[in-house]
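Quick start: read one record
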Amino acid sequence: MTTDLAIYDMDKTVTRRPTYTPFLLHVALERAPWRLALLPVVGLSLVAYGLKMVDRARLKEINHRLLIGKAVSERALEPHIATFAKKTLENNLRPGAVKAIERDKAEGRMVVMATASYRFYAAAIGEALGFDHVIGTGTVGGVDDLIHAKIDGYNCYGAAKLTMIEEWLDKAGLTRAHVRFYSDHNSDAFAFEWSDEAVAVNPDDELIRIASVRGYSVEDWG
């Protein structure tokens, strides 16, 4: 089936602020507050990332394990995902994102979220906003629906995000017609260039400069 698509990054595009670390802290606070004592170790992992001792994917796995745990059942996380999604919808959405989603759906586009954040919580946010599908970083599953602190496949970031979008299209039996892609950051350069209509949302100075050269639209979503 051939379809028009509107593909959205999530953190700082649909939302005002990032969600990944706040989600980990939210779960730790609600489920096991003692894990907050491990925040200095989280800080050390960020230093290691800054020194290029670990990559972005490994950083996610380390902090997931520290603040959520090595393996937690999806059922145990469900209430915390629900409360975090509710907080996000109430306090961390760009008003322009909601309007853009409504516009794209009214145009008959399939509306998709593609985010580096974990899919197991991003899906709850995407579903509440009316997205047709959510592509995100997966986690390794285990017996009894355990979610492990280990990324399954790609970290949905940079070039890998475009790879995951294309793999999803192939698996879903879809052929792109016109693609509109929204993001706040040039880490999504591959998806910007792949799309037919690139939209830089609340961009930083670097992306504003790139948008002017590459002919991207620029929108302020508040």
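The chain has one domain: 2-219.
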